[in-house]
Amino acid sequence: MEKGAQTAATIRTTTALTIFNAGNKENVLPGRAEATVNFRLLPGETEDSVIARVRSVIADDGVRVTPLPGNTNPPPVTSTAGPDYQAVNRTIREIFPDAMVVPGLMIAATDSRNYLDVTDSIFRFSPVRATAEDLNRFHGTNERLSVANYADMIRFYRRLVQNTAGPQ
């Protein structure tokens, strides 16, 4: 899994240099450089543990490491033993009958961190059948979902509401 670009992110914290600013002329060394690095934290990691690791790897007191405001630690992992997971499991099987349902890691950042004070059952899940071609477009040029995937998402969420709304 570590050798695959899509699966490596499911077993470790990822690091992506997303913004880099330095220099303004091709024959002059910059006096200052600044970089923004995006980390997607594996559950169990914290902002503090990642910053400590970065400082250890850089090992240069002249380099400042400053977290951006609004960063959050990964939400806790929700149990698969409760009725909430069972409702998601059931809905997946109803909408995607050929899918094998197993817990996994959602590597994308989600809004789930905004619901930590509301519920203990937070599932980071997207009901999309992503092909290798789709994965290459995520956060890239021509990012999109197919019409069929969009329709499946609507069917999934409609059915999930029905499955969790109580007796009908």
Attribute tags:
168 residues; alpha+beta; DNA polymerase, domain 1; 2 domains; two-stranded antiparallel ribbon; 5 helices; 2 strands; 32% helix
Detailed description of the structure:
The protein has a two-stranded antiparallel sheet with strand order 1-2. Helix 3 (83-95) crosses helix 5. The chain has two domains: 5-58, no CATH class; 83-164, Orthogonal Bundle (DNA polymerase, domain 1). The model has no long low-confidence stretch (mean pLDDT 87). The protein is built from five helices and two strands, in the order αββαααα. It is of the alpha+beta class and 168 residues long.
C-alpha Rg, in Å? Answer: 20 Å
Helix content: 25-40%
Decide which structural class fits the backbone. alpha+beta
The CATH architecture of the largest domain can be given as Orthogonal Bundle
Overall average residue pLDDT = 87
What is the total number of structural domains? 2
Distance between the termini: 44 Å
At the first level of CATH, the class of the largest domain is Mainly Alpha
> What is the count of β-strands?
2
Strand content: 5-15%
Strands of the largest sheet, in order across it?
1-2
CATH domain topology of the largest domain: DNA polymerase, domain 1
Helices and strands in order:
Elements: H1 5-8, E1 14-22, E2 33-40, H2 47-58, H3 83-95, H4 132-137, H5 147-164
Antiparallel strand pairs: 1-2
Helix pairs in contact: 3-5
